[in-house]
Amino acid sequence: MLGVTLDARPSLRCDTFYADTEVGVQFSSTGPAFHLHGGSAFQLFERIAPFLDGSVTRSELQAAVGESRWSMVAGILLGSSARSRQHS
Questions:
Q1: Are 57 and 9 in contact (CB under 8 A)?
Q2: How far apart are CA 75 and CA 78, in angstroms?
Q3: Is residue 3 part of a domain?
Q4: CA distance 45 to 41
Q5: Is 53 part of any domain?
Q6: Global confidence as pTM
Q7: DSSP label at 53?
Q8: Domain total of the chain
Q9: Hey, CA dihedral for 50, 53, 55, 60, is it positive or negative?
């Protein structure tokens, strides 16, 4: 889902579902589900999800979310990417 270069274009797999939980957001797909903990994790992911269609670069997404939220976004993208590679 995420390349290591700034010109990579992250995309959310079409079979990925996400849901708000008491402690963050839960993701599930064809592989094992995983959780991202944080009070604003679901709201943040819900805002960036429409942009995870391959139309924007990683650097454009980073500029849009700002430095203060980028570490959480990068964690979501890297976690999804690792799981995607394990189950492809």
A1: yes
A2: 5
A3: no
A4: 6
A5: yes
A6: 0.73
A7: B
A8: 1
A9: positive
